[in-house]
Each structure stands twice: as structure tokens, then as C-alpha cells.
Design a protein that fits this description.
With about 110 residues, this protein is mostly beta strands. The chain has one helix spanning about 55-65; strands at about 1-5, 10-15, 25-35, 40, 50, 70-75, 95-105.
Length: about 110
């Protein structure tokens, strides 16, 4: 597990190949967002096309570390997630875990 300067922790299982996205890129990913205890926060059942800078800052940063075919698990500290706000079943100050597979960088 590597820790970035922002405090995001990344466990990169596979870096993928080709170009990596930047924060303005559009990508197609499969992902699952959970709490540390494994409780699912969000799990779309099919790949999702997103713009990197339109998601949580921790996910935006994580996406820039892998290319198509890459896989990682990101441990997102509160300041890169929802901070001290309660959002749905996410408590204030809660760390999140996001498993991401990069399918395509558009």
C-alpha cells in the first residue's frame, strides 16, 4: 500500500496499459464503494462512464494512477471524501474504500 502526499492510500493490483487519465478525462470504470467495515455504500451493477473530476476527490486522484486494464483499492480519508458531513449512511469523518477497475480512458 502506498500513501500519496494528500493522504490517499492505494493498493495497486495492476497498473494497466496505455495512457492514464488526468483529472479532466472521461473514463469507463467498474467500481464498488464501501465503508471500512465492508458495508456497501454504492455498487453499480455495470460499468459506469464518468468524468474524473465529477466524483469524490479521493476517487479522482486514484483514477490517475491506473490505465485501461488496471485495478486498485483506494482507502479514502474523510478530507478526500465527504469530510465532516453526513451523506446517506456515511457518517461524518468516515473513511471509505473504493475498489476500481479501469475499463477505458476516452
Amino acid at each position: 500500500v502506498q500513501t500519496t502526499t494528500s493522504g490517499l492510500q492505494l493498493n495497486i493490483q495492476k497498473t494497466g496499459s496505455g495512457k492514464k487519465p488526468n483529472k479532466h478525462s472521461t473514463v469507463t470504470i467498474s467500481y464498488k464503494l464501501t465503508k471500512l467495515n465492508g458495508e456497501v455504500v454504492y455498487d453499480p451493477l455495470q460499468p459506469t462512464k464518468i468524468q474524473c473530476n465529477k466524483v469524490l476527490p479521493g476517487i479522482t486522484e486514484a483514477l490517475q494512477h491506473i490505465a485501461a486494464g488496471g485495478k486498485l483499492t483506494a482507502y479514502i480519508p474523510p478530507h478526500l471524501a465527504h469530510g465532516n458531513k453526513k451523506v446517506g449512511n456515511i457518517l461524518p469523518g468516515e473513511m471509505l474504500v473504493c475498489q476500481i477497475e479501469m475499463i477505458r480512458v476516452h
